[in-house]
Amino acid sequence: MTRTIFEKIPFPLNYKLYMFNVTNKDEVLAGGKPILQEIGPYYFEEYIDKFDIVDNKDEDTIVYEFRKTYQYKPEKNGPGLTGEEIVTVANPLLLSVILAINTDRPDLLSFIHKAANGVLHNPQDIFYTGRLWDLLYDGIVLDCSSDQFEVTAACSEFDSGDYGEIRRINDTAFLFSMFGNTNGSSTGRYKAFRGKKNIMDVGQVLEYNGISEMDAWYEDECNQVSGTDGTIFPPFQQKQDGFTIYIPQMCRGMTAEYQQSSKFSGIKTNRYTMSFDVSKYGSPNCYCRNEDSCPPEGILDLFPCVGTTIAISLPHFYKVDPAVGERLIGLNPDPEKHEFYLDFYQLAGAPVSAMPRVQVNFEVVPIEEIPYMKDLQPMYLPLLWLEDGVDMPKKFINMLKYQLILALKFQKLMQYGCIIGGIIGLIMGGIAGYIQTEKWSDHPSKSVINRCDE
């Protein structure tokens, strides 16, 4: 049964998307604080399955492609939201490229500025202003019709196949969307232990896309592929041990830590939470870009992983250094809405309620060579946040209750029954022995023997 569920989760996850609309972009360009308006949720059902599965009995391993497919459910959106909204949000394509070049190859800023002007028709700021669904799914056209060298060089890079968000639509144009081009495609090929030889190894990832050790971070211990893929966990773990999920998009395993006992639908569980704080590893550590560039508390800098200054945090900068949020207006961190948590039934290694939440931010800095970026204040500018959670459906909760928990209780009751029965048996045996002895002492033959002895 576990194997079947592992190959295809038989119920959808609730995938909610929230965007951060910037309502004062002119003031931001002049160095002011962004005023953010949260728009959402936009609701999707997320289906997870594995395919192209290969078992190796000798190694006790399994190799598979991991796939996520999203189905949009507009009727479950926030009030009045359709996807047709006109928004002003951080431009993910423009900012990704410019900030990456500024960090890695600042001498190429003039080159990339000319390329962006040609492909995006002379952008005037760092924001995308337009129909939200074009940015998310339908796509934004990238014009490659110019024969300008900078444009042709950028477009040949688009054509390399390294960017899943970009696809060619004709001889002179590509289409960029954040999610539309990757929906339903494999997120990578995993190799993991099956756990038939050692149950504590079940689901532990050994390789991702054929690699067992990454080269994103500058210390070996941080580059190890570790944890499960997040859809299966070993049973019988001690609650203080926590558990690790390997997240390839972050080039690392993230560890959830025990917080407190909890309860879900009548089942006693343990609650685990996760944050993106790297300061607990010391400073500097292998999750710092260098000795002089450790992220603030609660922030994970993904530049070593993805090659651009994207930073991950909990939504609304919950559990993040307060100085980060002070550069923005409109954020309201709330543990009820923004905590990343999982409620686990420890014995079975089963998450019965999970609420992973994550926010995507750009580490924005002023750049003199780009006219519309020279006056910006340094800040972490939020783009969106995601909630990818699920409460285990009642059918599976009942299976857990009545096929596992109740059976274990019955087994324990039988054990107690055997112990009590054994004790009662000993007592009854003692009583019976005593009665027999008394009867023997009163038996007539005993007096005859006594007289013979005399």
Description:
The protein is of the alpha+beta class and 454 residues long. It has two domains: 320 residues, no CATH class; 51 residues. The protein is 28% helix and 31% strand. Strands 1, 2, 3, 9, 10, 11, 12, 13, 14, 15, 16, 17, 18 and 19 form a 14-stranded antiparallel sheet that branches. Strands 6-8-7 form a three-stranded antiparallel sheet. Strands 4-5 form a two-stranded antiparallel ribbon. A hairpin with a 2-residue loop joins strand 7 and strand 8. The longest helix has 48 residues. It starts with a helix and ends with a helix. 29% of the residues are buried.
Gross morphology: elongated
Q: Give me the Rg, rounded.
A: 31 Å
Question: What would you call the quaternary organization?
Answer: single chain
**Helix content range of the residues, please?**
25-40%
What is the number of helices?
Answer: 12
Beta strand count? 19
- Rounded average pLDDT: 88
Low-confidence stretches: 446-452
Major beta-sheet overview: 14 strands, antiparallel
Structural class: alpha+beta
β-strand percent reads 25-35%
Overall number of structural domains: 2
Head-to-tail CA distance between termini: 80 Å
